[in-house]
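Notes from hallway chat w/ T.B., transcribed later so I don't forget. T.B. wanted the structure written out for a chain they're using in a teaching module, and asked if we could keep both sequence and structure tokens in one place. Agreed to drop them here.
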Amino acid sequence: MSPLARRILLTLCLLFAAAGCSLPTEPTYNADNIAGRLKQIIKDEYKYDVVTNLAGRTLWVYVPYNEEIIIEEKGKPQEFTKLFDIKSIESAYQFGAFNVTYDIRAVNETKETQKSKYNPKTFERMNKILRAIRRVFFSIKRDSLEPRFFVIIFSDTKTGLQLIDLNYVDDFRKACYELISWVEYRHRTVEDIRYQPNAIGDTRGSSIQPYDIQMPAFLAELIKQRARVKFSQPEVKKGADIDKEVLKTVSFCLQIYKYDDYLLVDLLNSATQKRTSLSRVSLMEKMKE
């Protein structure tokens, strides 16, 4: 999660948590109607036009937006300590292996400032859309066709800047049940910001291609995000073993989801060319050391 998001994360979490999560007695929605019904709820209750699609078991919500997603910080910029230079982090799952390639280097400690922030209006709208999503997920027929993931895309139709949030439905439910905190829920949300030229003027969602997200792909993205956050905040101390900290991140992400359907974890430090390859069993033993 970027420093921009962390600045108003707590406010967003508190606002959403305050609404509570009521449980209906009978399911109202199912996989056949959830996309259309969600679109209608958002239109009727909040007057927002969105595009919804269900691809396999992944619900996509495209939000055309005519406000700036990121704005200039007019107050005192947030300061943060920089101990590491993150040149690149890539993570992917292929043929039973999680492959993580990274170039993270220790640097002299410096103080840096964040001169921009997310537009609070963006998160106000995000909060309302999450309320609508909560409503349908807590009144959906529980079966093998219900969504496992949902993706919310805020798209600035003037500039093509997109804010993309990938969410695991069970995490969303756990946060509503207060089994995990809303702060932890946001840490489990995979966030991305990108420029998509085709999104300029796109109010129909034609600039995106919805697809069914699988758990290994979600975990690979979460590993990348958690590693970036760990070294950018930073959560690790000066002089820490970078390879060991990346391996800890991989292990942590797999453990919190109790995911064991993989054969290998392969790490490549492209700065030093050091490669670490561990089987599932070897990784578990390594983390006990």
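Follow-up for T.B.: The first strand starts at residue 51 and ends at 55. Might be a good example for the class.
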